[in-house]
Design a protein that fits this description.
Blueprint: E1 2-4, E2 15-18, E3 27-28, E4 43-49, H1 58-68, E5 69-80, H2 85-89, E6 119-129, H3 131-135, H4 138-144, H5 146-156, E7 162-172
Parallel strand pairs: 1-2, 1-4, 2-3, 4-5
Antiparallel strand pairs: 5-7, 6-7
């Protein structure tokens, strides 16, 4: 398992990479300089917990995760929803994402398949909402019904604000 941008909370048993020497990284490297220092198909799983919003090239990072993970391995990404205050209050955040931001990598690639050849199968997407909206049941609706999530993203997300998104993908090769 590779923990990308592991920081000081590296996942137990994982190989951690980070650019900061004050972290618990096993390998120091700048996450914006590709490729990472590992061979193709080196890992069964990649974790990128609150990392993807920091990289300069989201598509390049996803392609690198695809390169590093064996066929049918998994990639877990967690990132703030773009309507959350934390998405904009951290000056190191370069990308502000929503629950459809990774559609380029799906089987239908949203009609934009020419941006990348890397393909992932969506295993799950979970959106966490601010506490009030969770208690009122909006979080359940957003996560249970994909059409409701689309409606929420298009019309409601600036009122019923998101907090964090958790993505789980299978690597297709």
């Amino acid at each position: 398992m590779l923990d990308v941008g592991c920081g000081i909370r590296k996942f137990p048993g994982a190989i951690g990479i980070d650019r900061n020497p004050a972290t618990r990284a096993d390998v120091l490297c700048d996450l914006d300089h590709l490729p990472y220092p590992f061979a193709d198909n080196s890992f069964d799983r990649v974790l990128a917990i609150h990392v993807i919003e920091h990289v300069a090239d989201v598509i390049g990072a996803m392609e690198e995760f695809h390169r590093l993970v064996r066929p049918h391995g998994t990639v877990r990404i967690e990132t703030p929803h773009y309507t959350d205050f934390s998405s904009f209050c951290d000056p190191t955040h370069r990308s502000h994402l929503n629950s459809f931001s990774f559609r380029y990598f799906g089987p239908d690639n949203a009609g934009f398949g020419y941006y990348s050849r890397a393909r992932f199968r969506e295993i799950s997407i979970r959106v966490k909402l601010l506490a009030l909206w969770k208690w009122l049941g909006f979080e359940f609706l957003v996560n249970r019904f994909p059409r409701y999530r689309r409606f929420w993203e298009h019309y409601l997300c600036f009122v019923v604000r998101g907090k964090v998104m958790e993505f789980e993908f299978e690597v297709l090769k």
